[in-house]
């Protein structure tokens, strides 16, 4: 299915203010609300390469561009036009060089086809679209509106690729599993890790004495029985 679809009338749309009013009225179905128009540009000429069957060069000379939240549409003064789904637009940019300042787009001709959705890495057919407004100052507003609407319609194939990347196969043979028990002696690395943990653990009640203090305590400690015997000898 070509990325460009011929139409004979402007798709139905509403302004931002009308859209706000419709949403605020709590409609039966939000799907019935028409898309919002982000930019309208009159006196625009179009070039498609390769040409689109049923859309002649004479038809593309002058018309009106509609940047809607649903599609990008163009209606010629002859009454013939086309619309493009945003995921089919793989590239859009401002071209300020010769022969005229324009909006340059690349269209994926395989968008919406079974082959195009099945293999995103395969070589795809491409169609070039050049939008030339009579007023060069309109380039930036058109580009910004295109960017905003394109962001509302990400390519589902890109989302599938991101999902595939989230799952990877891990070779468990490359990992060593510890099967020992708590009685096994720690390795040098393990002892260093344990020492680090002990150094950063807070001891608010000072329950763990320093090594020097512990040594002094052991040296000065005398069993109760020895002290009793010493006192009895002094009495005798």
Automatic annotation (TrEMBL):
<dbReference type="GO" id="GO:0034715">
    <property type="term" value="C:pICln-Sm protein complex"/>
</dbReference>
<dbReference type="GO" id="GO:0005681">
    <property type="term" value="C:spliceosomal complex"/>
</dbReference>
<dbReference type="GO" id="GO:0005829">
    <property type="term" value="C:cytosol"/>
</dbReference>
<dbReference type="GO" id="GO:0045292">
    <property type="term" value="P:mRNA cis splicing, via spliceosome"/>
</dbReference>
<keyword id="KW-0963">Cytoplasm</keyword>
<dbReference type="GO" id="GO:0000387">
    <property type="term" value="P:spliceosomal snRNP assembly"/>
</dbReference>
<feature type="region of interest" description="Disordered">
    <location>
        <begin position="203"/>
        <end position="236"/>
    </location>
</feature>
<dbReference type="InterPro" id="IPR011993">
    <property type="entry name" value="PH-like_dom_sf"/>
</dbReference>
<protein>
    <recommendedName>
        <fullName>Methylosome subunit pICln</fullName>
    </recommendedName>
</protein>
<dbReference type="Pfam" id="PF03517">
    <property type="entry name" value="Voldacs"/>
</dbReference>
<dbReference type="InterPro" id="IPR039924">
    <property type="entry name" value="ICln/Lot5/Saf5"/>
</dbReference>
<feature type="compositionally biased region" description="Basic and acidic residues">
    <location>
        <begin position="224"/>
        <end position="236"/>
    </location>
</feature>
<keyword id="KW-0539">Nucleus</keyword>
